[in-house]
Each structure stands twice: as structure tokens, then as C-alpha cells.
Amino acid sequence: MSISQDTFDVTKQYKRVRFHEDRDLLDSELNELQEIAIHERHTLLDHVFVQGAILSGLAATPNDDQVAFAAGEIYVDGHVVAVSATTLTFEGAGVHSVWLDVFWRDITAAVDPILVNPLTGEPTAEREQWVASLQTRDTSGDPLPDGARGRTVVEVMEYDRDAGTVTALCVPPPAGGISQALDDLATTPPAHTHDDRYYTEAEADILLAGKSGVDHHHNAAYAPIGHVGAGATAHAAATTEAAGFMAAADKSKLDGIPSGGVPAGAVMPFAMDTVPTGWLECDGSAVSRATYAALFSAIGTTFGAGNGTTTFNLPDLRGEFVRGWDHGRGIDTGRNIGTAQADALKDHTHNIPDVDTAGTTTGKFVYGDEGVDAEPESVNITGGVTTGSATETRPRNIALMYCIKH
Predict the structure, then answer these.
(1) Distance of alpha carbon 277 from alpha carbon 260, whole angstroms
(2) Quick one: pLDDT at residue 138?
(3) I need a labelling partner for 108 at 20 to 30 A (CA). Which of 141, 174, 390, 397 fits?
(4) Which CATH architecture has domain 54-187?
(5) What is the per-residue pLDDT across 66-75, written as a single tens digit (0 to 9) for each?
(6) What is the domain partition of the chain in residue ranges?
(7) How far is it, in rounded angstroms, from Cα 123 to Cα 3?
(8) Which long-range contacts (CB under 8 A, 24 or more apart) does 301-309 make?
(9) What is the C-alpha end-to-end distance of the chain, expressed in Å?
(10) Does domain 260-406 have CATH number 3.90.1340.10?
(11) DSSP H stretches of helix in 264-367
């Protein structure tokens, strides 16, 4: 029986072979089907076990320059290989490596007579045999044994002759086998080197243990001790008083930022007749120094001391225009923040000619007695001629409600 050459190519990512019922199968198709299955299994198991992982057995008994190893099983190249019991001798002191040497060869009916079809007497398909052994050195460069087609060599253990200890280099799989390993992958975070800038879960629990009324839960996360800021400058480590494990300096800065980004004492006009949350109407009323401590800290008694002990006054901007504080510019001198100013007209001069004939003018100004060459006695200037009469001097305006942030 001839064996056709394999056609499987892993780079093509074939996942199956579809056979047709109307013709005989080729050996190459059967081989490819097997290679696909082996490749898929190999890929899956490599996510569960590392190369050279000891699956069972291989207990080591050190005795000076010799170590006796029990029989066992090791994961290599997607397969489980059996390793016979053996005793190895190590020359010299120090740490020595223990290597697994695996080579494979083809077995035919010429080697194993049972590989013959009993009905036809023809040889069946050849078999591949894997032979594994422990060695005291890396044998990857050695010539292949007779009939071998390839080999894999993996360092699996270390023997410290001075300490008399044997250490496996590969993490063993869990007791539950592959099923348990897959479950662990889904529920257990991978091993990592801990960054000392962060609290571990255990450290966070200790810090929170002394806090009354604190209910907290962890999900294997880490709370920061400190972090690197702009320019790669490390912030100081947090203290137990820093809520949320924030760096103490950062928490202080955050506490200084008001809610919504508007500081206490800010005044804004609102186009509505209801006071928004977090604000008070600028109506001159007296409010509690304790309740509105942030606002009292900002404006103090600038607009009134309230009752002198427990309250203070808000600015009263009802019906008022707000003017920018001069602050040394020299336009509105002699004033401090929060001081009021009465209305006024700037001093000015009107030029009004004499009335040469008796009677009154028909313009905007009426003055003097009747007669020739009369001199003016009084001037009445009425703004109502073009703008309507009023009891104050004002520009055009729109009424909005001024409120102050507390």
C-alpha cells in the first residue's frame, strides 16, 4: 500500500477536508484530515500548557551527584510523551540543567509485523513513534538516532547540587487537567510583577479596616498609591486619609475645584425667575455663615455683617447695573469691591440763544418773559420729548435675575 505525500499547509488555514461519495479517497486527503485535527489540537493545548510542562510523575530523589527520577509524562509539541524512570549523574557543584530529549521515527511492518492487513496481507499505513528520555545536557546538536526523522529538546528542570533541590522550570497544570486549566484562564488573572506604586487588594483591605461605615468590594483590582504626572514626575504616595486612594497632593487640588467649575462668590445673571441649585439670589438677604461657609469665606461681610455673629449679607443687585471695579485704572476712583454708587449726570453746557421777539419758542426749550431782547431766566429740559419721561437716567436694558454661587 503506497502512502501519498501530505498536502496540509498550515498557512492556508484549512479547517476540514470534504470527501466526495462518488470516488475513492486519496491517501493524501486522509493524511490532510489528520494533520488538520492535530494542528487544531496542538494550537489549543499550547494555550493551556507550556512546552515541557510536567503533567504527572517524575518525582526526583537527589543523592549527592545523582538524582533518581520516577516515570512520568511531559507536554511537548502538542502531545503527551511518556518518560521512563531513570537516574542521572551530575559532575561538579552548582546548578545543573535537566533536559528532555524527544525524537520521532516511522514504524513500518518491517519493524512491527502486526502492521499488516489480515485480509490482504498487505502492509498497513506506517506509524510514527515518539521516544523520550531525560538528559544532563542539551542534545539538540547531536546526530539523530538511526531511523529518526526529527527531535525536540526542552530544558525541564534544574538540580542545585549544593542545596540538594530539584526545581521544575515549567508551571504544572492544575489538578483538574485541561478542563480546570480552561476554567482558570477565564477566572484567574495572569501572574504579574506587582507595581509598588499601587496597593494590592490585601493592602487596601487593611487600610479600609479602620474606617467605620465603609462598604467596599474588590474585583482583583488595585487602588493607586501614587502615579506619574506630567513630565514623568511621581506624585507623593497616598495616605489612608486620601479618599479613593488618590495621592494626597492631588486630592487637595481636587478639593479646591468647585462643583461644576464655578467658584463660590461668582455672580451670574439668569434668564429665569427661579434660583438654580447651588446658587442664591442677590437680594441682600442675611444667610447662615455655617450653612454657606464657602461663600462666607469668599465674600465675608463685604455686603453686610448680618446679625454680626451667625449670618452675613448677600449683595443686593435687584434693579442695579453692575460696573467693573476700577482697581487703579483712574476712571471710577475711590471705590472698593461691593460699594454702591448713586445715579448722576455728568456736568455739561447747553447753548441757548436770546429771544428777540415777544412770545415763546416752538422748539424743545421755552424760557424768558415776553418782550423785546428778553434774557433767559430759567431752562426746563424734558427728556420725554423723544424717549419718554422717567425718574432716572438709564440706557436700554433687559431685566435678568442676578444670583451668586454658594
Answers:
(1) 11
(2) 92
(3) 141
(4) Sandwich (2.60)
(5) 999 999 999 8
(6) 10-46, 54-187, 198-209+221-255, 260-406
(7) 11
(8) 302/337, 302/338, 303/338
(9) 95
(10) yes
(11) 293-299
